Amino acid sequence: MALAWAQKQTQEGPDPALSMLLGTVGSEPCGSSSSSTAHPAAYVNPSLPKSAAAQATSLPQGYLLVFTLVLPDGLGDLIFGENAVTELLDVGPVAWIRCHLSAEQVAPGERLIGETAGKLTFNLTCSGRSSLSSALHSHQLERLWSNAKERFLAPWIFGLSEKDEEVILELARRTSKRFWALTEYGRSMGNIHTYSGGLGAMIPTGWSVDGTDGGVFKSILRVPRTSTDWRKIVAEHCGLPSDRVSEVRLWWFYSRKDDEKKHSFRELDKEASGTDSHVRFVSKVVPIDENGSVARGHEKTSGEKLAEQLHQCAADPSFKPNLDVSCAEVTAGCAGQLSQFLWDSGLLGEKTAEGKEVFDIIVAPNVFSSWRRASGTDRAVARMLQMDLVSRDGSQQVFTLPSNRKIFICSMKVPRNEMRTFLEQCQQAVYTTGDQSLAEAMFMGKIPCVRPDAKVSQWEMALVAKMNGTMERVPDLGVELRNIVEDGTARKAAQEALRLRSAD
C-alpha cells in the first residue's frame, strides 16, 4: 500500500513531503502518556492521569484492553472505538489505547471522547512514527497485554501502522495471548489467522442484507432519552419567538469536516434584509445541469485526493504536496451534499397554505464552522434567502424564496449523549457520513436520502435492509463483544467460525 510504503520511508529517513501528508511531525507519545508541551501536537487531557506507566501498575482484575487506530482522514475511527469501549464497559473495566497516525488529530479527538475516557481504568494516547514503542516500556506493554481478560483492536487496519502492528503481533506471539480485531464497516483485514500465527480473529463488521456476516453498533438504542427540547433550543439560536417553536421542522445534515469548502454560499447584505439580528443572510450557490436540475457527479473525497498525492510522492521525491485539497462545488462542476440534500429531502417541495409561514432549520455541525469559531460562541446561524443556480457554462439564475419560507442553517454540535433525543425530533430525511452516524440515523427511523461520498456500498446495504424489513436481523456488535467476554461457549464458537472462514 502506498500509505504503508510512505510511512516506511519516514521511518528510514524523514521526507518533508511525506511527513506533511501523514501528519507524522515528531515521535513523542501524546495524551495521558506524556505531559510534554514541546511536541507541536501534544495533547494532555487534564481530567486523566498524566503517567501511563503509573496507571498500568494499578489495573483492576478482569480489565478489557482496547486498541484503536485513528487514520488521518477524520475521527470516525475514534467514534467506532468509543462505541466498542462503551459496550464493553457493561461487562468490565476497560483500558483504552488510541494510536493516531496524524498528530494533528490528537487534540480534537481527545476532546471528542473526553467524557468516555474519563470513565476508564487506563488511557493512553500516542501518535507519530514511534507511537506505542516509545509510549510505554516493552515490559509494561507486555504486562498490560497479558493480564487483560480479553484484547480487542477496534477498529484496526493492518498495513497502515507498521511499528504499532509489529508491537501488537509480537506481544501476541510472546505471550501466546489471543486478540480480536474489527475494521470499520465493510473493510477487509486479509487472512489474519495466518499472519497472526492463529492468535488473531477478525469479527465481521458492516451492514448485512440477510442477517448473516457483518454487524453494526446499535448503541444508540441503549442511550437514555433526555427531556431536552431541541426544537426550542435551535429555534432560539435562530432568533425565532417561543410561540413559533411548534411550527419548526428540524433537519439533520452531518457532513465531513474536511469538506466544508465544498459548500458554496454567497453572503448577502444584512441591511437589505431589514433586520439587525445576529443571523447572517446567504444565497445558496447550486450547480445545475442542462435540464435545470442539481448537477450530480462523483467528487473525490479529501482522503482520496491525499492518497493520490502519496503515490506522486513515492514516484517523485521532489513533488510538493498540497494539503488544501477541498474544492468548491461550482468549481468542481457537481453539487455538494448540502445542495443535493435541499433537492432530495423534500424540504423545498412541500406545498403550504398561501401565506402560512414555514420554519425549517438544518442543523449542520460542519458547515459555517469558521463563522462559529469567529463568533466566540458554540453556534453560527444563517438564513437562506435565495438560491444562485449556476449552469456549467457560467450563466446564473437567482431564485428568491417566498417570504413565508424561512430556511435557516444552524452550525452547532450535538452532544453524543443527546443524539437519540435530537434525532427523534428531526425530520425523516437526513444526510450522514461515516459508519456510526449512518447507523444512528437508520436505527432512529431516518432515511439518509443523499448518496454519501464514501462507503456507498454500506449506505446501499443499509437502505436495502430497511426496505426489506431486515434491520433487526443485522448482528449487534455490542452484543457480540459482550458475549465474547462473558460466554466461554460463544467465544470458542466465534473463534472456530473465524478460523474456518480464514481458511477458505
Question: How would you describe the overall organization of this protein?
Answer:
The protein starts with a helix and ends with a helix. Mean pLDDT is 81; it is low at 1-50. The radius of gyration is 24 Å and the shape is globular. With 504 residues, the chain is an alpha/beta fold. A hairpin with a 5-residue loop joins strand 11 and strand 12 (396-400). The protein is built from 20 helices and 15 strands. Strands 7, 8, 9, 10, 11, 12, 13, 14 and 15 form a nine-stranded mixed beta sheet that branches. A six-stranded parallel beta sheet has the order 3-2-1-4-5-6.
Estimated helix fraction: 25-40%
Categorize the overall geometry: globular
**Count of alpha/pi helices:** 20
Terminal-residue CA separation: 24 Å
Q: Quick gist of this model?
A:
34% of the residues lie in helices and 17% in strands.
Question: Which keywords apply here?
Answer:
504 residues, nine-stranded mixed sheet, six-stranded parallel sheet, 20 helices, globular
